[in-house]
Every structure is written in C-alpha cells, then in structure tokens.
Amino acid sequence: MKEQEVPQDNNSIYRGQKRAVYATTEDGEYGVVASSGWDVEEEATQQAVAELERLADEAYEMCQEGEVSPLEYHMYSKRLDLLSLSQATGLFQWRIKRHFKSATFAKLSDKILERYADVMGITVHTLKQLPKRES
Amino acid sequence: MSTMLSHHGLMMSEPMAFGLSSALNFAYLPFVKLAGMPLIAYRSIPKAIIKGLQKNLGLKMKIETFSNQQKGQDRLDTLLEEGKIVGAQTSVFWLPYLPDEMRFHFNGHNLLVYGKEGENYKISDPVFEHVVEANEQEFRKARFAKGVMAPKGAIYYPTFVPQAIDYERVVPKAIKAVAKRMLKTPVPIAGLKGMRYLAKNIRKLESKDRRYARLFLGHIVRMQEEIGTGGAGFRYIYASFLQETGKILSNDTLLEASDMMTEVGDSWREFALLIAKSIRSKKSETVDFDAIAKKLESIADEEAVVYKKLLTAF
Fold first, then answer.
1. Is any Cβ of chain B less than 8 angstroms from the Cβ of A38?
2. How confident is the model at residue B284 (pLDDT cuts 50, 70, 90)?
3. What is the pLDDT of residues B150-185, one digit of tens each?
4. Chain B contacts of A24, Cβ < 8 Å?
C-alpha cells in the first residue's frame, strides 16, 4: 500500500485518534503511516455493534413484557453472548439459560449475581433491573 | 517487543521483531468462538512469538502469570520501578482508551507498559500511533479478564538481551520457518490450506441464514483489519521486514519478495473491500459468495508464490 493510498476516512469510531499502518513512500520505502481510518473497517465494526444492539433491544423489550430476566439484556449490552458469558463466569450454558427466566432469576443468590455483575463490570443492583430508556 | 528490546540496547524495528519471531501465519479455527464467530488469526499467538525470538536471537524472556490479582499488579509495579518495560496480555474489552465500538471480548491483545505516574499506567498499544494511559483499576480488569484465552495477568520482559544480531544466521531460519509453515502445514485449518478451507466455508454461507452470513463476512474483515496491526492481516509489516532484511543482507530475492508481499497485502485489502461492498448491498440483492471465496483462493495462490520464492532466497 502506498502512502498516498492509506485511507484517511475519519473513522468516527477512532474519536480523532489515528491508527498505525505500514505503507511505502514514493521510493518504495516502508514506514509507519498514521491513518484516520478505513471505511471498510468502520462498516464491519458498525455491523457487529449494530447486531449486538439489536439483540440487546430485543432482550430489553422481552424483559419489559416479563418474558425474560434483565440478565439477557445486560449480557448483550456488554457485548457478551451465551458462550462467552459461560466461559467468563464458569457457569454452564444450560444454567445461564435458566437464569434468563424471570422467575428463576428473581430467586438467584447474591453469590451468583455477583459473578455475573463482576464479569460485566456492573453492580448487582444494576444487574437486577433494566436501565431507563427514552422511548 | 521491538520497543522493549530497543530499550535494552538492541535496536530493532517492529517489522524486524515480527519477522525474526516468524510470527506471520494464518489459522481458521471454526471451533474457537469470538463473539459467536470463528477465530481467524493472521499471526502466531504471542507466546509463540516470544518463544520464536528467544530461539532465534538467544533472547531470554520471562513470562509471568498470576492467580492472585493483587500480586500481579504489585509485580508489574515493581518491575516498572526497576526501569523495565513490560509486555502485557490483556482483554480488549476493559481498555479505557479504546473507542467503545472496538471494545469486544478479545483476550489475546498485547501491549507494552513503559511507566507509571501516580495511579496511571503509561501504555504503548500497537493499535494507535500515540501512547495511551489506563488507571490501576481499569488495567487490572483488563489483565485479569475471564473467558477464552484469559490473560491471567500475563506480563513478560527480557532477562537477557543479546547486544547484536547475527542476521546472516538468524534471518534465513526465521524466513524459512514461515514459508514452510504456510506452504506445508498438514493441518487443514492452518497456513494456505486454512485459507482455502475458509474459502470453502464462505461458499457454504449461501445456504445459511442471511444475517449470519453477513455477520460472518464482516467478522473476517474485522479479524484482518482491526486486530491485525499495520493492515492487511500483518502482511504489510512482513513486507517491511523483508525489505529491511533484504537491505541488510544485500539480498535481491528478499527485496523482490517484499514487493510481492506488498501486492499480497493489497489483495487482502481488495478482499476486505469486496466483502464490505457485499455487506452494504440492500436486502433484496444477493451476496456473491463465490466471488468472495474465489478472491480468497487467489490470495492463497499469490502467497504460495511468495513463500516459494523465499525458500530460494538463501
């Protein structure tokens, strides 16, 4: 990739920071070039972020209707899924699925709740409820 | 790594450290999931990179992991006080200086801690071209994140750094290791075979859920460009290494291979662009999975030519 070809697409995700890429000068010499972003990379990341937001939104609504516990919402909002949450907490997936049920979740011990909260970086208090959202 | 070594008197560029550790690779691991998607790696795991440098350069590195978080933090602080620069493995999710959208649960990130001021660690992160900071609490969470490839507070630093490198001896070994690995690994998920295996799976996406297929494709791009330092899944850094060693050893074959590797890097970028265009397409348009798979297969062919050439360089 030549220096002039290094994309400077002002990837909004970078918040003004620059990424380091390797490119060649006119003489063909390699060096580090700062890039403000490549829209291809930005789109791929936004796609992944949007998918998690979609899952979190669905979980939020289902929780409001009492169909699932807040756990499912918080999981997606912290970019986790069943497998990674299981790996991070050390709890089996089938157990976590049970905790997605409102009734089961309500009876969980503080110990288990703390495990989830710790992995997600939130308090148990936050975990037990849905955050307020503007409609 | 190169900053660490330079700090100890062994001047080495990032591409040189990358090349001499034989880190260039490819692996497609459908059974290891990162955010629900298979892991695609363009370089060896950091431990292998460190071992590679140790073996090739006579470098001695110490890697420490901790079951006790406080001990882990204290040890890092002690090493920094001794004036050492320390490498650390962390989760990407907990790094406060990373933009929110980049903070996924990836535990195989590596960075350098070069100092501490008050409660803040001073960090050199390969993602950005400027230095960054994180406070004790944030950094602890990043170092001790749980899950797949959990870092366990891993830190590493050199205990013996040779003051000179015998390039004539070390470079051929390092390059041949990469070329052989990419060309000849018998395992279907690694090397060029791994690329072709991924291409096959891309074609299979045709019959899979539409949303999943697009996410899968987007994921490939992210593995290549977001996690891959320097762009094009580390291929540009490797081309830079080939250029540097080509000059040091006055080896024209290496210089030619460097140009070829640059073109390979460009092809990877074209591949990413092709995927981006497909994901962009509106709901009614079908994605041409075959075209994407074909592009990946042609990249594998291009890389094969470069590695074969490298095997004739010495």
1. yes
2. low
3. 899 999 998 988 888 889 999 999 999 999 999 998
4. 262
Closest-approach residue (CA) in chain A for B137: A121
CA angle, B124 as apex, A26 and A48 as ends, to 5°? 80
Residues B25 and B6 in one domain: yes
The contacts of residue A34 (CB under 8 Å, 6+ apart) are A18, A19, A20, A21, B129
**Among A19, A40, A119, whose Cβ lies nearest the Cβ of B273?**
A40
Range of the domain at B70: 2-160
Provide DSSP, A15-43. TT--EEEEEE-TTS-EEEEEESB-HHHHH
Residue pair B108/B88 in contact (Cβ under 8 Å)? The answer is: no
Which residues on chain A are in Cβ contact (under 8 Å) with B211? 51
- Best B137, B143, B221 member to test A by mutation, with max A CBs in 10 Å, is B221
Complete domains list, chain A, with CATH: 3-37 (no CATH), 48-127 (1.10.260)
For residue B265, the chain A residues in CB contact (below 8 A) are 1
Which of A65-69, A74-78, B161-165 is predicted with the least confidence, judged by mean pLDDT? B161-165
Q: What is the pLDDT of residue B12?
A: 84
